[in-house]
Automatic annotation (TrEMBL):
Belongs to the ABC transporter superfamily. PANTHER family: ABC TRANSPORTER ATP-BINDING PROTEIN. This is ABC transporter ATP-binding protein. SUPFAM superfamilies: P-loop containing nucleoside triphosphate hydrolases.
Length: 254
């Protein structure tokens, strides 16, 4: 099948994954290029499992995932080259400074040393880490490490950024910096998909919102579309979210 000139950033079809029981059960999801998309859902709904499969860290049992038209099973490296994955558990090397860590990651992507140093310095400044650029990561707070991990994920200039709960544990200032970086990226044409339990963040930042319940997408749309779907005007996202999850057949079956 020929690949379209402007494929969506992400197309998931019929995705399924079981652990000791089915967790993702036939998920279809499309995110357009350049979109800011928020994935919401109750604890255990399967959001992290979905994103880990998109990032190539977990093998689906069934279904396909295409990133900018590239099937992640057929050409995982090409898909990873354009994707950034930011886990909710930042993992960086304790005995490296943020600057060294970013240069190391850039090296893995075979970015020339001079270029790597420039990108690393820019990201460190952008995320307000300049004061800590030369301290060992092992001595940084969790919030700072989250920002270092985010910088590490951005160093190869990905076109799709996938983040799992990127704002949890960040103070107001750091959360602002991370939000600004993501908004700036979307303005530059990058696609951002993130999970969040902070509904206000989804409401303010995301162009479209997907609600996952028990491994399925139970609703999707702009805030206005979700409001219209539950038939109530001027309702908060929190109320919409609770209504949608409660009304989903998966919840009713449970
Ligand atoms: N490695 C694993 N082995 C067995 N079960 C798992 C594993 N990882 C996740 N699960 C189960 O899969 C389900 C979905 O988990 P997942 O972490 O994807 O949900 P989530 O929507 O990201 O939840 P949260 O909002 O709490 O982070 C949960 O019931 C979880 O216990």
């Amino acid at each position: 099948m020929p690949v379209s000139v402007h494929p969506p950033a992400l197309v998931i079809s019929g995705l399924a994954k079981s652990y000791d029981r089915p967790v993702i059960t036939g998920l279809d999801l499309t995110v357009n290029a350049g979109e800011f998309y928020a994935l919401l859902g109750p604890n255990g709904a399967g959001k992290t499992t979905i994103l880990r499969m998109v990032a190539g860290l977990l093998q689906p049992d069934a279904g396909t995932i295409a990133v900018f038209g590239t099937d992640t099973a057929r050409d995982p490296l090409a898909a990873r080259r354009v994707t950034a994955w930011v886990s909710d558990e930042p993992m960086v090397y304790d005995r490296l400074t943020p600057l060294e860590y970013l240069e190391f990651v850039a090296g893995l992507w075979q970015i020339p040393a001079g270029d790597a140093r420039r990108r690393a310095r820019d990201l460190i400044e952008w995320l307000g880490l300049s004061q800590h650029a030369d301290a060992f990561c092992g001595g940084l707070s969790k919030g700072m490490l989250q920002k270092v991990a985010l910088a590490g994920a951005l160093v190869h200039d990905p076109r799709l950024i996938i983040l799992d709960e990127p704002l949890t544990g960040l103070d107001a200032g750091s959360a602002r910096q991370v939000k600004d970086v993501l908004i700036e990226k979307v303005r530059g044409g990058v696609t951002v998909i993130m999970t969040t339990h902070i509904l206000e963040v989804a409401e303010r930042m995301a162009e479209r919102i997907g609600v996952v319940s028990r491994g399925r997408l139970v609703a999707e749309g702009t805030l206005a579309e979700l409001r219209a779907r539950i038939g109530r005007g001027n309702t908060s996202l929190e109320e919409i979210f609770l209504d949608l999850v409660a009304a989903s057949p998966e919840t009713a079956a449970a």
